[in-house]
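Entry type: protein chain
Record version: 2
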Amino acid sequence: MSRAHHSHVDVANIVSGTFIVNHYKDAIKTIWSLEQDLDVLKAQLQLTDEDLAGIFDEEKRYFENLRQPPIDVQLKAEYVCALKDWTATT
């Protein structure tokens, strides 16, 4: 199938709604399957939905804190910059 023909088919599917319906159905199947997997894991690990929410919040805070280097690293970098500035003026 040529690229031009393939492009035409995609547009026709999108316009007809087939594309959206097919992808919606695929998404629902995936969500359903992953929910079942999650339920099995929660049972095995003895976790609740609240536990998962707490874990998510902890990870979110952890990664937000990674945006800035640790304070000691920041201070060391500032010291080196100040030392460079001082040596450049003397």
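Comment: The radius of gyration is 27 Å.
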